[in-house]
Amino acid sequence: RSGTSAITRGLKVLGVELGDRLMPAVEGNNAKGFWEDVDVSALNFEMLRLLGLEWHGLIELTSLEMEQLRSKGYVIQAVEILRKKVANCPVFAFKDPKVAKLLPFWLEVFEHCKFETEYVLTLRHPRSVAKSLAARDALDLEVGYWLWVEHLLSGLSGSMNCRRILIDYDRLMRQPDAEINRLANWLTLRVDASALEQFKTDFLDESLRHTHYLPQDLALDNRCPALV
Predict the structure, then answer these.
(1) Chain-centre distance of CA 126, in angstroms?
(2) Per residue in 84-96, pLDDT tens?
């Protein structure tokens, strides 16, 4: 709900490969597509299910659970999946919000494969995220706020010693050229001008952004935790 789909789709403008097994679009949820690899997403879902966790649960992955994933052979499964997907790709990316919860696992996979990894972290106003989760999943607004802060802090702490960039979804919608070029410069990749125009006209749809708030608006909502 933080604009990860739009930002991941934007990577294609830079020639980044996202794979050929992408999750199909769902009208009313992500009408323009999720841009998530179905194999990676299925593996993440299976691991969470094994651990008795939910994507919307507010529980961190512990060292004991990491050991459980190793003992069940999930690290080698992930290694095999990624090696196949990057085999013919100079630059490959995958997106799955569940990775925020499972980042310690994926860090181990990347290290084993000796991949050169870079992290694109997305940010969107927490009230926009909470409202979107309430509309799609009937989650209480306060739960949505806590999920926002959990995912953001997990991503920030997990990538602490890694190369990373933060992209604001609302800023991308306001000035796509500037944000895509900023991302390209950081990744040292070239922007395909025609692909950028297509991205702006065919994918970035202002009608799909139902809310837009300012930071100070949070002070007006007594359901918003102080930490957020």
Answers:
(1) 15
(2) 999 989 999 999 9
Which neighbouring-strand residues pair with 118? 163
Cα 80 from Cα 108, distance rounded (Å): 13
What contacts 193, CB < 8 A, 6 or more positions away?
none
Q: What is the pTM of this model?
A: 0.87
Q: How confident is the model at residue 206 (pLDDT cuts 50, 70, 90)?
A: low
CA distance 95 to 22: 10
pLDDT above 70 covers what percent of the chain?
94
Q: Which amino acid is at 39?
A: D
Single-letter residue type at 99 = V
Rounded distance between C-alpha atoms, residue 156 and residue 159, angstroms: 5
Tell me, what amino acid is at 216? Q
Phi-psi group of 175: left, alpha or beta (phi > 0 → left; psi -120 to 50 → alpha; rest → beta): beta
